[in-house]
Amino acid sequence: MNKQADVDHIPFSRVVCDGRELELIREVLASGWLTTAGKCELFEGRFAAAVDATFACAVNSCTSGLHLALEALGVGAGDKVFVPTMTFTATAEVVRYLGADPVMLDVEYGTCLLDHAALRAAIAAHPEVKVLVVVHYGGQAAAMTGEGETGLLDICRRHGIRIVEDAAHAFPARHRGRMIGSIGDITCFSFYANKTITTGEGGMVTTNDPDLARRIRLMRLHGIDRDIWQRYTSDKPSWEYDVLAPGFKYNMPDINAAIGLAQLERAGLFRDERERCARHYFEALQHLECIDLPVLRERFEDHAWHLFPIVLNGAAPVERNLFIERMAEHGIGTSVHYKPLHRMTYYRRRYQLEPHLFPNAEKIWRGCVSLPIYPALSDGQLDRICASIEKVLAT
Ligand SMILES: *Cc1c(COP(=O)(O)O)cnc(C)c1O
Question: What is the pLDDT of residue 2?
């Protein structure tokens, strides 16, 4: 490959690790405790404080967290769970892990979020559904609460539906002043390599409910009751423990927690830098009529800005796929969030899902492109991205 082109390339995503991560990893290696121990506990405590949650349980991915969340809420074979179609497959696959079935919902054009009217209609059509998984798409909070019971949480409470929040994009984010992670029944965060903070692979589950927290903690590590184990260690041999359920192996190793602790220290800084990118895009792209920019329901500073999704609308002279190819020729990496789940072979076939059932998701899918948004992007690079967009759209 051409070296020069390599230097000029602007990737879609890039992590920031400045050495603090290494410092904390060294402490873990020196301690001899590589699996879940002190660093993990510290990370859980600090994360809980950061999102104003009572309990935080570190796991090895957001996917594991979502699985644990639904298990703790009692989702089982034959049950149904509402899931938006505009999300990553993890949001829906965990429903299948438990033998339950996802009921796919369309989202609002502009925000890509579930809105209260769609939820009300879905509840009327599927009164048997007991759990909703809501996705804070792109890092903007869905309307959990609202005036006159228009909030998703208000509607669910009235119908006895529990809410799990897929906050894989939404750390740190607020909804009407409250931190995401402190609002619904259970919230799951992702620390996958390209998320707003990373542990390499990892996730966090938060809740304010002590019973749910206890169940999640139990099932995270083989169903071994650690509390009982700890209580009895003083007068029983250290090898003895009890198994209360067939749990999972979803714990977060201390090496990953060390990276998480270092990232958490700068999470606010990272968010501010992504907000700078978002403001730059709004400023530079708002005059382009063939692009629909993301619609804001929350304040700029309450958005985690994990993604900056634009939609090429009907007026665009190039189709989405060609646009992405042309941007790549300009040395700019982009992505798509998402090809909706109702278009994925497994879900489409199993649930006979037709595109016309999801008009907004279809309209988004046809034109959606996610632009680079991360702290390391300089204003000069942002200018270059915007200039390339203009050029590609002028063809
Ligand atoms: C990344 C992502 C997940 C899965 O996160 P992992 O930590 O990789 O398991 C789930 N939901 C959404 C919306 C995501 O973007």
Answer: 45
The string of pLDDT tens digits covering residues 304-360 is 999 999 999 999 999 999 999 999 999 999 999 999 999 999 999 999 999 999 999
- The token pair that represents 270 in the structure block: 């990272």
Characterize 174-195 residue by residue with b for buried, 16 or more Cβ atoms within 10 angstroms of its Cβ, and e for exposed. bbeebbbbbbbbbbbbbbbeeb
Angle between the N-to-C axes of helices 379-394 and 320-329, in degrees from 0 to 180, rounded to the nearest 10: 130
Structure-token pair, residue 116 = 């209260």
CA of 64 to the centre of ligand 1 (A): 10
pTM over 0.70: yes
Backbone φ and ψ for 335, nearest 5 degrees, come out as -145, 180
Which atom of ligand 1 is nearest the CA belonging to 65?
9
Burial of residue 270 (CB within 10 Å: 0-12, 13-18, 19+) is: buried
Q: Report phi then psi at 312, rounded to 5.
A: -75, 115
Q: Which atom of ligand 1 is nearest to the CA of 191?
A: 7
132 and 112 Cβ atoms separated by less than 8 Å? no
Told to judge if 339 belongs to the known catalytic residues of this protein, a careful annotator would answer: no
Reported as type and span, the H/E element at residue 370 is: strand 368-371
Task: Give the nearest ligand 1 atom to 135 CA.
Answer: 13
| CB 135 less than 6 A from any atom of ligand 1 | yes
Surface-to-core class of residue 305, CB atoms within 10 Å of its CB (0-12 exposed, 13-18 middle, 19+ buried): buried
Q: How far is CA 8 from the centre of its chain?
A: 30
- Those residues whose C-beta lies under 8 Å from the C-beta of residue 287, and which sit 6 or more positions away, are none
Of 195, 236, 363, 391, which one is the catalytic site residue? 195
Give the Cα separation of 348 and 107 in Å (integer). 17
